[in-house]
Amino acid sequence: MSADAVTFEFVRTTREFFPQLQKWLREPHVARFWNHDTADADIERDFGGSIDGTEPCEDFLVLRGGLPFGFIQRYRIADYPEDLALLTALVEIPPGSISIDYYVGDAQHTGQGLGTAMISAFVTKCRADLPDATAIVVPVVVPNRASWRALEKAGFRRVGEGHLPPDNPIDDGAHYISRLDLDESGPIQPVSPAR
C-alpha cells in the first residue's frame, strides 16, 4: 500500500463495539453535533435496533488500517416517513434515496481530509450494496462546517437549505441539504487526504 493510499473497512456494528461508540460520542467534536446520551441504556436504545433488525438502518464501525476510526450509518429515507416529509418540504427527494450520518471518532484525525475520504469510500460501498438506491441526500446543520464541506469535497452538491429539527438544541435548525446522485459518472474518485 502506498503512503498516500487510504483504505477503509466498514464493519456492521455489534454490541461489542458499544464501548467504542460511547467513547467517541463523549468526544467534544462529536458531542457538539450528535448531542447523544451515552449511558449504556441509551446506546442500547439507539444502536441495538440496527443490530437486531428492528430498526431500518445499517450502522457501521469504520476501520482505517484495521483500527477503529469512525462511525457511519445509512438508511432509506422512505423508511422514516417523518424525515421524508420534512425533507420533501425543502428539496426533491428522488424515490429510492438514502441518507447517511457519520463522524470521525478521534479529534486527532480531523482536519486532514480523512472524513471526506471515508465518505467517498462509503459512497462506493453504497453503489455496490444498494444498486436500486438513486441518490444520497444528507441534511447537515449549518454550523457543522466540517461536515458539509466534507460532503462537498466528496462530490455532493448543495441542493437546498431550510429549517429541520436540530439534534442539539443550541442550534437554530438551519440546515444545508446536500445530494449525490448515485448513477452519475460511475464510481466516485478516491480522495487523498491532506498530510
UniProtKB/TrEMBL annotation:
Highest taxon of source: Bacteria
Domain N-acetyltransferase: 8-183
InterPro entries from the UniProt entry: Acyl_CoA_acyltransferase, GNAT_dom
Keyword annotations of the record: Antibiotic resistance
Keyword Coiled coil attached: no
Signal peptide as annotated in the record: none
UniProt GO molecular function: N-acyltransferase activity
GO process terms (BP): response to antibiotic
PANTHER family assigned to the protein according to its UniProt record, in alphabetical order: LYSINE N-ACYLTRANSFERASE C17G9.06C-RELATED (PTHR31438:SF1)
Name this polypeptide is given: N-acetyltransferase domain-containing protein
